[in-house]
Specification:
Length: 92
């Protein structure tokens, strides 16, 4: 997958996350761009969710995206591997 495709998918995912959780800042999302596993911690910090509640919210979010025919999260997770250079994963 080329860098432009990855950037487009990350931008789509960022937009969907910001729409769902508007309190998250661009700086918060910069950390999520590199490692999606950080999203539960951010939701706990910003929204006061428990760890379990944050995981449920993310699962619901992913289900909602899939119901809309958007598999952005899966595509991004598949693309962002340890082999992906950090500069490619970061949205400019």
């Amino acid at each position: 997958m080329n860098s432009d495709t990855l950037q487009d998918r990350l931008k789509q995912l960022r937009a969907a996350v910001k729409e769902r959780w508007g309190v998250l800042t661009d700086k918060d999302l910069d950390t999520v761009d590199v490692k999606l596993a950080k999203l539960p911690g951010l939701l706990q910090e910003k929204y006061g969710y428990t760890g379990e509640q944050a995981k449920k919210e993310i699962k619901l979010f992913c289900s909602d995206l899939q119901a809309k025919g958007q598999n952005i999260v899966e595509l991004v997770e598949e693309t962002l591997t340890n082999e992906t250079p950090r500069q490619e994963a970061h949205i400019k």
